């Protein structure tokens, strides 16, 4: 499985690959297996120059932490997706964790496969992944429109199944978003979750985070320190699968609508505030306008995925009970939502998904 080559096990150090300051929590079974795998990989990490072993065809992806290259293996001709992480911004421990967790999870049909090849060059750490020829889920979201409900439901059950598997192994993905869902076909008949660069053991403690994303749960957004402070008012947060469940709920909103529901889950975001108020007083508060396009059944599902209290949140597989029901209200001939659906004011109210020019 591993390419054999001498390499020392580097001392543990703060992971520059992560935006959060973390410390290890209670050891889970899955976690100790990963740690053993990390140690074994470190001892046998090949040193090679990418060009000597692979023909680099083109760059097929770029994220916050690394680049993904379409390559063919020089001897075998096998096409692969090589994820390369610059040593300048990646600690060895972070790389080993991402590689070993990806390897452990890669047997699931809805998680990207690995070749069992990890290496370091002078400037990079890298590992070879199965090449997923479609684009990622973000690339097929039509801004302000989203993706058809039928296709969203296909994605939803597959992502839920991948999350169920990850969580059963005592791990939390921590970066669920459309960019990290790879497509084998444009109709999403087969999708694969990727990017385990932020994945951690359940129970790992987060002391603070430096910035927020729309997919982050309220309890995570509370970990940003106030201006001029080094630590947040909130006590350290234990990483739980409920963080992924929340992000999954936001992802479903994004791909169904082509909008983010909010920018961040704090009281300064009026879209989040409106949603939180409705969740706290569902009997007396109207459904916020950007949620009115959804059926009551779909809203029930969202209420379970996006429960404000992490302990009240359902597991991701709750969506499986809702795929047989309608999610989006039918449109009236005038283009507005039917029966109690209200007029969608999303185009003026919500922020469009990622302000990439491609999607404007
Ligand atoms: N195995 C793969 N096959 C095809 N494209 C991929 C593959 N892995 C990643 N990508 C593309 O590369 C992008 C960045 O990869 P990712 O692993 O998410 O890096 P980062 O950790 O920097 O976010 C993804 O959003 C996706 O578009
Ligand atoms: Mg990514």
TrEMBL record:
<dbReference type="InterPro" id="IPR011009">
    <property type="entry name" value="Kinase-like_dom_sf"/>
</dbReference>
<keyword id="KW-0723">Serine/threonine-protein kinase</keyword>
<comment type="similarity">
    <text>Belongs to the protein kinase superfamily.</text>
</comment>
<keyword id="KW-0418">Kinase</keyword>
<keyword id="KW-0067">ATP-binding</keyword>
<dbReference type="InterPro" id="IPR017441">
    <property type="entry name" value="Protein_kinase_ATP_BS"/>
</dbReference>
<keyword id="KW-0808">Transferase</keyword>
<dbReference type="GO" id="GO:0004674">
    <property type="term" value="F:protein serine/threonine kinase activity"/>
</dbReference>
<feature type="domain" description="Protein kinase">
    <location>
        <begin position="54"/>
        <end position="328"/>
    </location>
</feature>
<protein>
    <recommendedName>
        <fullName>Protein kinase domain-containing protein</fullName>
    </recommendedName>
</protein>
<feature type="binding site">
    <location>
        <position position="83"/>
    </location>
    <ligand>
        <name>ATP</name>
    </ligand>
</feature>
<keyword id="KW-0547">Nucleotide-binding</keyword>
<dbReference type="GO" id="GO:0005524">
    <property type="term" value="F:ATP binding"/>
</dbReference>
<dbReference type="InterPro" id="IPR000719">
    <property type="entry name" value="Prot_kinase_dom"/>
</dbReference>
<dbReference type="InterPro" id="IPR008271">
    <property type="entry name" value="Ser/Thr_kinase_AS"/>
</dbReference>
<dbReference type="Pfam" id="PF00069">
    <property type="entry name" value="Pkinase"/>
</dbReference>
């Amino acid at each position: 499985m591993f390419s054999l080559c001498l390499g020392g096990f580097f001392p543990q150090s703060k992971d520059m690959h992560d935006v959060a300051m973390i410390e290890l929590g209670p050891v889970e079974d899955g976690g100790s297996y990963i740690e053993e795998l990390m140690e074994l990989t470190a001892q046998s990490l090949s040193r090679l120059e990418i060009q000597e072993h692979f023909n680099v065809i083109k760059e097929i992806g770029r994220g916050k932490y690394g680049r993904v290259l379409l390559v063919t293996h020089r001897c075998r001709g096998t096409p692969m997706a090589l994820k390369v992480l610059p040593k300048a911004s990646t600690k060895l421990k972070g790389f080993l964790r991402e590689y070993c967790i990806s390897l452990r999870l890669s047997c699931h049909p809805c998680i990207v496969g690995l070749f069992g090849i990890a290496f370091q060059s002078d400037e990079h750490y890298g590992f070879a992944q199965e090449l997923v020829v479609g684009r990622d889920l973000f690339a097929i979201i039509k801004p302000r429109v989203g993706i058809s409900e039928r296709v969203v439901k296909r994605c939803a059950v597959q992502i839920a199944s991948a999350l169920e598997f990850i969580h059963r192994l005592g791990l939390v993905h921590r970066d669920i978003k459309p960019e990290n869902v790879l497509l084998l076909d444009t109709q999403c008949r087969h999708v694969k979750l990727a990017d385990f660069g932020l994945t951690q053991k359940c129970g790992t403690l987060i002391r603070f985070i430096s910035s927020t994303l729309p997919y982050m749960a309220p309890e995570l957004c509370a970990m940003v320190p106030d201006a001029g402070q080094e630590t947040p008012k909130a006590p350290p947060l234990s990483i739980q699968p409920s963080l992924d469940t929340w992000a999954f709920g936001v992802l479903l909103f994004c791909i169904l609508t082509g909008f983010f529901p909010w920018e961040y889950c704090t009281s300064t975001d009026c879209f989040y505030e409106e949603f939180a108020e409705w969740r706290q007083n569902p009997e007396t508060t109207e459904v916020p306008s950007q949620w009115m396009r959804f059926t009551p059944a779909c809203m029930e599902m969202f209420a379970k995925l996006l429960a404000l209290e992490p302990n009240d949140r359902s597991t991701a597989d709750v969506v499986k009970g809702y795929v047989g029901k309608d999610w989006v209200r039918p449109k009236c001939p005038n283009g507005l939502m039917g029966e109690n659906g209200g007029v969608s004011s999303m185009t003026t109210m919500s922020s469009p998904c990622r302000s990439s020019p491609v999607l404007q």
